[in-house]
Amino acid sequence: MGYTQTQMPAATTAKTRPNRLVERLLADRHSLPLSIALHLVPGVLIVAAYLLVAEPLVLGIGYPPFLGWAIAMFVALAPVQLGLLLWLGRQRNGRYSLRGVLRYVDKPLPRGKLVAMVAGLIVWFVVVSFALTVLDSVIYESFFTWVPFQDAGASATTYLDGYPRSVVLITLAACIPLTGLSFPIIEELYFRGFLLPRLSHLGRWAPVLNAVLFSLYHFWSPWVFLSRVIFTFPAPWFVWKKRDLRLSIGMHAGTTFLMQTLGTLAVLLNLMP
């Protein structure tokens, strides 16, 4: 005799019961407290991984803190952000897939316009971030000299200062596929493909809040918060406006890969002091 609905075994009922956490995370809207937590908690975990694991490791082997941050992101950023997305995809689709987890992936922009916009965004990112380094220095010297991170400073190269050229070269080359490419892509999938669309009920404030929280998430460089909001804001804005995630991936990963590769070549060719 087959089971009626009231006779169904408890185990089967449990399997078919919706996962409320998954439903909440994959809902069209995230509440403001939930969104804030999802934006900021990964940053806390990265800092914890650096202080507890990565910094003692790299200092013990004589390598710069720059490599320590790459290790911390490998330990905390990739598993937490990409891991959450893949887990949600498996819960939704029954397999490891990002279908239904990410938004803005329908590729509405034609290729030529996409390339032109990404190129413009990269130029904006590079020019504005360099122009605002003076502001970063002022903020660091005024408010953040107390931070506990080894060799912290306003300059992007401070974490590399004082180490032998060969060590710096190995560090930069090893980090190109990580901090130069993979981690920025993961961040864009998480922050712009997963979190930003679920703030769309805020209208024009959605990309603003996303840019502010993304900048705040970088707890390892709080003195860059203000300038980071400015030079990263076009990414969430245009992704939200054009509904194309490739814009922010191209801007973020394109810039970091370009700058880190050029920096490595500069050290290799003795073009840097």
Give a verbal description of the structure.
The chain has helices at residues 10-16, 20-26, 32-60, 65-93, 111-131, 133-143, 165-175, 178-195, 205-217, 225-232, 234-242, 246-268. It is mainly α and 273 residues long. The protein has one domain. Helix 4 runs parallel beside helix 8. The N and C termini lie far apart (82 Å). The relative contact order is 0.14. The model is unreliable at 1-16 (pLDDT under 50).
Task: Give a quick precis of the structure.
This protein has helices spanning 10-16, 20-26, 32-60, 65-93, 111-131, 133-143, 165-175, 178-195, 205-217, 225-232, 234-242, 246-268.
The biggest beta sheet, please?
A: none
| Percent range of helical residues | 55-70%
- Order of helices and strands, N to C? HHHHHHHHHHHH
Average predicted local confidence, pLDDT:
91
Radius of gyration: 21 Å
Shape verdict: globular
Contiguous runs where pLDDT drops below 50 for at least 5 residues? 1-16
User: Helix/strand/pairing class, anyone?
Assistant: mainly alpha
Measure the end-to-end span: 82 Å
Query: Domains counted in the coordinates: how many?
Result: 1
Number of beta-strand segments: 0
Jot down its keywords.
273 residues; mainly alpha; globular
Task: Give the topology, please.
Layout: H1 10-16, H2 20-26, H3 32-60, H4 65-93, H5 111-131, H6 133-143, H7 165-175, H8 178-195, H9 205-217, H10 225-232, H11 234-242, H12 246-268
Helix pairs in contact: 3-4, 3-9, 4-8, 5-10, 5-12, 7-12, 8-12, 9-10, 9-11, 11-12
